[in-house]
Amino acid sequence: TMLKKVLLGSLGAALVLTAGILLGHFGIQRGSTHLSHDRSLVPMCLSRELTKVPHMATSPGDEQTVQYMLKRWQDPDTGLDQAWREEYKVYLSFPDPNTPNKVTVGESWEKAYSSDQEDPEVVQPYAAYAPAGHPKGRLVYANQGKPSDYFLLNQTLNLTGTVAITRYGGEGRAGKAINAAPYGVIGVLVYTDPWDINDGKMSDNNETYPYSWYMPPSGVERGSFNTHYGDMLTPYLAAKDDTYRIPEKNITGIPPIPTQPIGFEDAYALICDVKLDIYNREELKNSANVMGVIRGSVEPDRYVIYGNHRDSWVHGAIDPSSGTSVMLEVTRVLGRMVKQGKWRPRRSIIFGSWGAEEFGLIGSTEYTEEYYSKLSERSVAYINVDIACLIAFLQVKTPGSDSSSVYDNWIRYFNRTSPAYGVIPNVGFLTGAGSDYAAFIHFLGITSMDISYTYDRTKTRARIYPAYHTAYDTFDYASKFIDPGFTSHQTVARTAGNVLMRLADSLLLPFNCSDYAETLEGYLSKAMELYTDGLAAHMISIEPLQTAVRNFRSAAARLDQLIRDSDLANETPLKVRRINDQLMLLDRAFLDPVAFPDRYGYRHVIWASSKAGQATFPGLADAYTRAASTGLDNDWKEAHRQLSILIQAIQGAAHTLGDTI
Amino acid sequence: TMLKKVLLGSLGAALVLTAGILLGHFGIQRGSTHLSHDRSLVPMCLSRELTKVPHMATSPGDEQTVQYMLKRWQDPDTGLDQAWREEYKVYLSFPDPNTPNKVTVGESWEKAYSSDQEDPEVVQPYAAYAPAGHPKGRLVYANQGKPSDYFLLNQTLNLTGTVAITRYGGEGRAGKAINAAPYGVIGVLVYTDPWDINDGKMSDNNETYPYSWYMPPSGVERGSFNTHYGDMLTPYLAAKDDTYRIPEKNITGIPPIPTQPIGFEDAYALICDVKLDIYNREELKNSANVMGVIRGSVEPDRYVIYGNHRDSWVHGAIDPSSGTSVMLEVTRVLGRMVKQGKWRPRRSIIFGSWGAEEFGLIGSTEYTEEYYSKLSERSVAYINVDIACLIAFLQVKTPGSDSSSVYDNWIRYFNRTSPAYGVIPNVGFLTGAGSDYAAFIHFLGITSMDISYTYDRTKTRARIYPAYHTAYDTFDYASKFIDPGFTSHQTVARTAGNVLMRLADSLLLPFNCSDYAETLEGYLSKAMELYTDGLAAHMISIEPLQTAVRNFRSAAARLDQLIRDSDLANETPLKVRRINDQLMLLDRAFLDPVAFPDRYGYRHVIWASSKAGQATFPGLADAYTRAASTGLDNDWKEAHRQLSILIQAIQGAAHTLGDTI
User: Fold this and answer.
1) Residue A34 — very low, low, confident or very high, per pLDDT cuts 50/70/90?
2) Could you give the CA distance from residue A482 to residue B392 in angstroms, rounded to a whole number?
3) How close does chain B come to A657, measured CA to CA in Å?
């Protein structure tokens, strides 16, 4: 998982999915588990198989995994209808294998960061796309590296020529350096603070792994330090051999100064002057997706897509192999039913094992670029299962252990009160680019869902499971501390498989557009509360936005009524197709390719990420916040433009839900 | 018609339509005329009714026409299922009613251009969006005002401070001033040269109207002098009351210096120093579309759209009222069948009477912006009939007069040799923004067609019918010289109605994707001939483009084979829907919203207009031409980028035609 700050808000969800749209028809239901007749789930051995060797993108381990997946998906008894590999040539970032990156403090302290202290045979990136360089300067603590952190620090200190040390969280990885550079900061260190990840535990004698799920002092959290997703040299184009590549100097959204992640053990050792010797360099390398399909019986031209990435930092037992295990298990169960002639879904199912996700969701993004038209026209939904389980010993009871259902657990530990339904399981929003759903929802406007089983947040303040992106994310760690017995893996496999089957097989798509209306109404009321007066002071009326949301609600109610009044199974197949098309294309109606022209791949005006930190329309929130802060006429114009874009998109969505002519 | 240079290339076509895609199934066939059972066509009285008063956009005459059309379309016996008006507030350009624009030569000669010399009660724009100003300078003749014209002129003359006089043709209207300004030219006059429009005739005693179809010496050809289409203050947004409007200073693509069209009588009178007094000014005004629908019986969520604009310069008997007459006649005939319960099309039909076309295709563009999602998802085709007849006494025989068919005339006077079919009727390409099809094909990627009956080009060199955009385009002119007896109007009504009914009613859409492949192959072979070596010299291979076109051809052949092997009427309705969706969405697959970021509304990478003047892929042609001329590395990069965009689009189109999973 290329986890970014934007995902943090949704980690509390047991099932995290975009929009309330999916919620009504199955999210909330106490559905049967279609996969329950197949209890022979074998994620344990799969996970062991998948995590034996490191499988960073383009490593020999990655290629082994490709072969392993192809073998499984081409298995004559349990494979899919078809499976193949697709190759892209993408821009990745690696350390120099001969000259390790180094952090030096005076004469006395020095540490190399290329072979991993926890796993010495592995040479691999720590901060992908962080530039090479040799900054040396006084160390300053810059909190989370947010713009406000540097702004405040600069009130009392001259930051020019300093090296900033920041902790993970609160700001995207690259942002910590991008925000620093304007103040003259020449290098950035990033560490994982035990208060953010370990509930304060930091002793390697008895508090951290292998004694618990907490990260040991030497653990280093890696990551990709780019802010756009997809191959950076081929924006909007699939990265084939002959594809045009932009000049490297035109790349935006990467750190302008050398940056290096370190463990908290080292962070606490650093004082005074620090020197960084960073030798990272970029290379064009091949990376593969593995694709598999089950052909639909009735509507082969409608796709439900299910995916996860394959590459990891070091071993990646949880991220991503927990998700890969689940995917392989789902394909094995469904594949066997298909091969035995017992079942074939109404719609087609496409499985994708994405390459190079950790470098910026590259495999999935290139796939959406290459098949843009076809996927836009035909995809019903995308399901992502990446970190299937991040539960640990603090986990809520899993269904397997006491036979309470996912529904019961979900509504107990993560709920909200809906105006329409009362207390229901809560669902987060996919407003960021945390994993491979990003290109599907933000670029293509395909309704998407990210599923994982998570921990009880009242029991830990951990930002994410502590071994995340470190060399400690191993089979041993996962089997001891994350999911002993792998029962939660089973639960996720059954849940995801269930969702997949309902999407692929139900006559009427299990989407509820009135739930979407509820979300828009929530966003609207927040926008009115925050922005009405400020906009009015600049002669901009928020009223047309109210009208648009009201129209959306009416159109949704009309469609719901039409569905209730219909006997779809016994009417012409074109009627249910028509209604399904309205539901399928609803998220597409929110796309506007010129809404955010400087943000590659963000076209969805409801779910785009936002810096404003408000539960409301992202484009309007960001533009308003900026205008209110600068007071510039041009910024108020942009706020008005964002408002008009939003109104037109919501009206357009209402039109697609409304009477078809 | 907002006719521009780009349309010139297609005037030779009897039926002008985008892509060969429509050709195969009905374009070439000697089809029956479905409308032939209704011979009571009444375009004559319609035309008289429509042209009694001037109906420039926002004029009282325009409002009268709106009311007239609503009355017709809401008629209980011959109206449509539903009809209504839709209002936009758009940025238009008008002269000052109190202070006429003036051209002055020394002391002796002066002419006012606000009330029309031919039609004194009409005060209206000559050059919409040409700025106000009072330039005075030496007059220089600058041919057609092309970049090369000014470049050559500047070799021998200092153009600074001069007023250029140019003739219509060879360059877009605004271009004549945009190209001039960098040389210091301070004003531009544009006239219609008798050699270009009148076959050299210029006497008002016996050679020109009212003695013939030729334009009298006083005739002035008006036009809109903007290069982008749609409301200029609200790009990509429907121009509602509250919509954000860009600052006027940010408008691009309009003349930077005062510009005035004049008649050739005046052009020949001008010598030496000339002074222009231009008082044009811009205003926000309401403009309406009139919409009407016939609901489809089987697939109401599939639309065939038929449209024409309603506004004209002065009376506009031909442009647009010949087309409006035809549309009213088609709606009357179809409406009556529907009201009598005798017929209802399989798919829905939407009729649009667009406002403010002459100012830059504004009504149709705002419509596509407002209903973007719904129209993208559901539109099968757009048919435009604007200038229905521009035939005059030079016309080819019309079917009415000697009962030869449209097909016979078409193949006789305008044919080509196809590799697949031999000699067939020729079809032009809609590569420009000549009329309201522009937003449909270039912005939305909806397969479009523009139909008009034209003259025998071996008999006249006229750029277009001579009264075009002058006050002489009247009912009298049309009934005497363009279409005596209005038989060609009938022919066009039957042809357009026939096409419309086939699109709306046939089980399988009458699209032939193999004809599209033939066009792509033609473009490819031209591109290879012109660009292979030059690209190779910059390490850019054209081979992947060959592969993409080959893949498209295979996919098209596969789909054709599937259609031939199917018994669609007796298989599941979802099968023909699936195939129809592939055909319908084929043109959509060629859209790329980031291909031409500085050209509003151009997203179709095959049919976008091009300056290179080659029958090949426009983006590649323009980028290559530029790179070859400047030799700059960045320009070669752009050529490579355009090539990659093109390859990806063609591959994407091949994917949509290919096996659906």
Assistant:
1) very low
2) 84
3) 9
d(Cα A107, Cα A66) in Å, to the nearest integer?
A: 46
Q: Amino acid letter at B287?
A: S
CB contact under 8 A, A641 and B588: no
Say yes or no: domain A93-282 is CATH 1.10.260.40: no
- Please tell me which residue in B299, B357, B358, B518 is annotated as part of the active site: B357
Q: Cα–Cα distance between A388 and B437 in angstroms, integer?
A: 50
**Shortest CA distance from A298: residue in chain B:** B574
Which parts of A159-272 are beta strand (E)? 163-167, 187-191, 223-224, 259-262
Query: For residue A390, is pLDDT > 90?
Result: no
Residues 6+ apart with CB under 8 A from A102: A110, A111, A112, A113, A275, A276, A277
Alpha-carbon distances, residue B35 vs A126, A273, B1, B332 (angstroms): 73, 89, 26, 11
Q: Where in chain A is the domain with CATH 3.50.30.30?
A: 93-282
Q: Which residue has the tokens 């016939």?
A: B294
As a whole number, the mean pLDDT across chain A is 88
Q: How far is CA A272 from CA A157, A278, A338, in A?
A: 14, 19, 65
Question: Topology of domain B5-92+285-505, per CATH?
Answer: Aminopeptidase (3.40.630)
Kindly determine whether residue B242 and residue A544, on different chains, have CB atoms separated by under 8 Å: yes
Chain B residues close to A552, C-beta within 8 Å: none
Contacts of B583 in chain A (CB under 8 A): none
Give CA–CA dist A482/A488, Å, rounded: 9
pLDDT-wise least confident of A281-295, A387-401, A490-504, A544-558: A387-401
Residues of chain B with CATH 3.50.30.30: 93-281
CATH code that applies to domain B513-657: 1.20.930.40
pLDDT recorded at residue A489: 86
Q: Which of A221, A357, A369, A518 is catalytic?
A: A357
Q: Is B357 a catalytic residue?
A: yes
Would an 8 Å CB–CB cutoff place A538 in contact with chain B?
A: no
Residues of chain B with CATH 3.40.630.10: 5-92+285-505
Partner-chain contact B295 A661, CB within 8 Å: yes
Best CA proximity match to B473, nearest among B129, B117, B221? B221
Enumerate residues 6+ apart whose C-beta is below 8 A from B407. Answer: B28, B29, B30, B31, B425
Mean pLDDT of A557-570: 96
Question: What stretch(es) of chain A map to CATH 1.20.930.40?
Answer: 513-657
Maximum separation of any 2 CA atoms in chain B, in Å? 82
Q: What is the dihedral of CA B501, B505, B508, B510, to 10 degrees?
A: 0
Identify the closest residue of chain A to B659 by CA–CA distance: A301
Cα–Cα distance between B381 and A524 in angstroms, integer?
36
CB contact under 8 A, B644 and A243: yes
Contact yes or no for A300 and B660 at CB 8 A: yes
- Sequence letter at residue B85: R
Answer whether residue B336 shows pLDDT above 90: yes
Interface check for B593 against chain A (CB to CB < 8 A): the answer is: yes
Q: Tell me which amino acid residue A105 is.
A: V
Residue A645's closest chain B neighbor by CA?
Answer: B237
- 10 Å CB burial of residue A559 (0-12, 13-18, 19+) is buried
- Is residue A498 within 8 A of residue A506, CB to CB? The reply is no
Token pair, residue B195, equals: 């050699």
Who contacts A211 (Cβ-Cβ below 8 Å, separation ≥6)?
Answer: none
DSSP state of A133: B
Q: Give me the sheet containing A15-17, strands edge to edge.
A: A15-17, A448-451, A379-384, A299-309, A347-354, A281-294, A82-94
Please say whether the structural domain B93-281 has been given the CATH code 3.50.30.30: yes
Task: With CB atoms and an 8 Å threshold, state whether A661 touches B299.
Answer: no
Max avg pLDDT among A478-492, B69-83, B406-420: B69-83
